[in-house]
C-alpha cells in the first residue's frame, strides 16, 4: 500500500463536458510545479457517481464536486498542499 495521497479526477461524460479533463491537466501541472510526484498519485476515473456536481475530484475517498478548471488551483492550495506539506 502506498503512502501517497490518492487523487482521482472524473473524466466521464458529465465531468468531461464541464471541464474534468482540464481539471486533471491543471492538477498535473501544479503537482509538477510543486515537485510532489513522490507524494501524490493522480488518476483519471470514468465515473465517481456525483454527476450533478461535476467535475468531481476524490481525495482519499472523499468526493469534492464542482472542481472546475477555474477553481482547480484554489482547490489544490486548500485541500492538497496542506496534506502533503507535513
Record keyword descriptors for this entry:
alpha+beta, 4 strands, 3 helices, globular, 86 residues
Describe the structure.
The chain is an alpha+beta fold and 86 residues long. It has one domain (5-84): 3-Layer(aba) Sandwich (Glutaredoxin). It is built from three helices and four strands; from the N terminus they run E-H-H-E-E-E-H. It has helices at residues 13-17, 20-33, 72-84, and strands spanning 5-10, 40-45, 57-59, 62-64. It has a four-stranded mixed beta sheet with strand order 2-1-3-4, covered by helices on one side. The longest helix is centred in the N-terminal third of the chain and has 14 residues, at 20-33. The mean pLDDT is 94.
Number of strand elements: 4
Shape label: globular
In what range is the share of β-strand residues? 15-25%
The helix count comes to 3
Amino acid at each position: 500500500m502506498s503512502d501517497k495521497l490518492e487523487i482521482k479526477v472524473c473524466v466521464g461524460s458529465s465531468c468531461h463536458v464541464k471541464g474534468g479533463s482540464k481539471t486533471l491537466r491543471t492538477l498535473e501541472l501544479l503537482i509538477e510545479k510543486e515537485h510532489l510526484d513522490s507524494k501524490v498519485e493522480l488518476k483519471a476515473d470514468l465515473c465517481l457517481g456525483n454527476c450533478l456536481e461535476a467535475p468531481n475530484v476524490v481525495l482519499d475517498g472523499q468526493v469534492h464536486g464542482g472542481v472546475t478548471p477555474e477553481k482547480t488551483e484554489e482547490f489544490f492550495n486548500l485541500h492538497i498542499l496542506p496534506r502533503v506539506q507535513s
